[in-house]
Amino acid sequence: MSRDKKIAVFYYSQTGQLADILHSLLTPLVNKGCNVVYKRIEPLEPFPFPWTSDQFYDIFPESRAEVPFPLKPTDFSDIMDADLVVLGYQPWFLAPSIPVASFLREKETQLYLSGRDVIAVGGTRNMWVSAIKSIKERLDEAGARLVGHMAFEDKHNNLVSVLTIFRWLINNKKEATKYLPAAGVSPEDIRSASQYSKYVLSALEKSDYSELQREIVASGGLRFSPNIYFIENNGNKIWGSWAKWVLKKGGHGDPARRFRLKIFKWYLLTLIFAISPFGSIFFALTWPLRRRSYKNIEKDLLLFNN
Ligand SMILES: Cc1cc2nc3c(=O)[nH]c(=O)nc-3n(C[C@H](O)[C@H](O)[C@H](O)COP(=O)(O)O)c2cc1C
Questions:
Q1: 113: CA distance to ligand 1 center in Å?
Q2: Which of 199, 223, 247 is the last residue of a domain?
Q3: 236 lines ligand 1 (CB under 6 A)
Q4: Overall number of domains in the chain
Q5: DSSP state of 72
Q6: Are 117 and 144 in contact (CB under 8 A)?
Q7: Which of 10, 21, 29, 259 could serve as 34's disulfide partner, Cβ 3.0–4.6 Å?
Q8: Cα 268 to ligand 1 centre (Å)
């Protein structure tokens, strides 16, 4: 029955992590006879990997402000008859990565997505809330329906995963050390992405996605962490002003903004390592006052389409 179902998959991946997650999720569908067509989103000028520290901070303002970058054209001709779209994403500075954000803003993409069902799949450190909100806005604009969302995370402690991700993205050292675990989403969690394929297949076959998100959440494909949300939500508000402040000095790569980026870098490191632990203590102490409102936030974020 599923033999003629076609899935169009759009994604960008620097290290291959998101690509691995998508393959793990979608290979069981291929084995059931679905035609899965991968479309890589490619910036006209590739982003570096590994990043130098300067390159990494220099991409902050454009990431946060979602400034579109030029992409290589996408050929939609062989996926016009797709029954479902899967959109892979990774957050960059709490927004969808520049390639994904740029892709979603292109006119051709918006036309293609109009009227389609979309499942978003994130390969993240642990902060995906602002990114999926932005993606949902773009999909709404295009007239597409977000029918499912799962996000894969590094499940280690927040500060530990900051250290390991810097080591990975800037020094290309992903493996564990004596003191630190390996960076990124664990291989077990990447493998476990395949467990959600049965829910996707069943919804696809029935063309009914009304239960999909509940099934994903019930089986652990999207988890809400109040403490991480608290940090992300506060960070995201302040970062908008920082991005604007740096952008006033010039665009991507402009040496005129170097000084402001340096200040941002030190602000960010102080925030993460010196202030956020106190923020977490404050959060724990005030949790009884927040519990109720956070239950609603959790429901909205996890079951957006219900
Ligand atoms: C510039 C940059 C900023 C990032 N910011 C975030 C972030 O805000 N939240 C998060 O969970 N992960 C963040 N990450 C991690 C990515 O979302 C992603 O998990 C990692 O880069 C591996 O993705 P890949 O499949 O593209 O290699 C960031 C990565 C980069 C390169």
A1: 25
A2: 223
A3: no
A4: 2
A5: P
A6: yes
A7: 29
A8: 16
Strand partners, 152: 123
∠ CA(134), CA(296), CA(157), 5° rounding?
Answer: 70
Domain that residue 12 falls in: 2-223
Angle (CA) 142 146 149, round 5°? 140
Residues 129 and 64 in one domain: yes
**84 and 231 share a domain?**
no
Q: Tokens for 305?
A: 């389409």
Q: How much distance in Å is there from the Cα of 190 to the middle of ligand 1?
A: 16
Element (H, E) at 92: strand 91-92
* Alpha carbon distance 34, 30 (integer Å): 5
Among 182, 208, 223, give the residue marking a domain's end: 223
What span, in angstroms and rounded, lies between the C-alpha atoms of 105 and 245? 23
- Per the CB < 8 A criterion, the answer to whether 12 and 99 are in contact is yes
Taking the CA of residue 15 as reference, the ligand 1 atom at the shortest distance is: 27
- CATH number of domain containing 204: 3.40.50.360
Nearest residue (by CA) to ligand 1, atom 12, is 125
Same domain as 254, residue 105: no
| Beta-carbon contacts of residue 285 (< 8 Å; ≥ 6 apart) | none
pLDDT, tens digit only, all 306 positions of the chain: 445 899 999 999 999 999 999 999 999 999 999 999 999 999 999 999 999 999 999 999 999 999 999 999 999 999 999 999 999 999 999 999 999 999 999 999 999 999 999 999 999 999 999 999 999 999 999 999 999 999 999 999 999 999 999 999 999 999 999 999 999 999 999 999 999 999 999 999 999 999 999 999 999 999 999 999 999 998 888 999 999 999 999 999 999 999 999 999 999 999 888 888 888 999 999 999 999 999 999 999 999 744
